[in-house]
Amino acid sequence: MNEENAHSVAIGGFIVGALLIAVVTLLFVLGSGLPGQRQQVVMVFDGSVKGLTIGAPVALRGVEIGEVTGINLVLDEETMKLIMVVEASVSSERIQGIGLGGASSELIDELIARGLRAQLNLQSLLTGLLYVQLDFHPDTAVQLADIDSDRRQIPTIPTGLERFTRQIESLDIAAMANDVQEIAQGLKALVQQEDVHALPGELRTTLASLKQTSEALNHTVQAAGPQLDSLLENSAGLVADSRAELPRLFQRFDESLGSLEQAAGEFGQAMQQIDGLVGEDSATTWQLNQALRELTQAGRALQSLARTLEEQPEALLRGKQE
Questions:
Q1: Domain locations in the chain?
Q2: Separation of alpha carbons 162 and 159, rounded Å
Q3: Is 43 exposed, middle or buried (0-12, 13-18, 19+ CB in 10 A)?
Q4: How does pLDDT run across 289-313, given as a tens digit for each residue?
């Protein structure tokens, strides 16, 4: 009886083990896919990958399309620079539908050409675990590391936090501390000066003077208030009188303009008459010219007589001598 029970237990254990193996195999096929359905890729990161573990998810805009399969540390012997090589397996079936219909490698190449880049992001702030986030950044350049790998390499870019950390690390903290110390010493020396110590007293004096000025100004305004009111009333009356007188003034102005226009017309007629009198073809002009010629001849005769009298004063009594 005991032997039969032991035999039955052995058979049952064998069956359970076979079932477990079948389930694990099925899960592996469903999780990893067939060889032709998954693409092996590699990504190179310059910074620390602390928190990234094998089996960590690889997500494209939040949709998990693969997992990390290996993490290696590579040392460049020429530059002595360490780089982190992360290997992953991604499923092209989760990112179909862009019209390629080709092999998985062609799909990855097309996505990279359209700006596909890899970044390390936190899965949870509590655990500190990382995952690989894939997204499109078409404005970034494709920078591929020179590594010996037959896998398709996806370019990587730092996250905003990584860029901020690198900027902080590049700052010269010692120089900044020295500058702050010098500024503090300068402020200390400034505060210790006697002029600075006298500032509160001068400020109180200035405030007291401003207060007195304000009170005097307030008193002046109060005293001048009735006068200002009277002035405003007089101004209002003057404006009212001006409004009443303006129509009559405009009427007189119009009348004056009419008289001025009439005088201008008469003046124009007079100028036309003057032009007729002094014109080149007018009789008045000919008579004036004739009179000017006669006056010229008379003037010449007087000049001749004057010369004769100057040379022969006795000509008035004896007559002109030849």
A1: 34-169
A2: 5
A3: buried
A4: 777 788 888 878 777 777 776 776 6
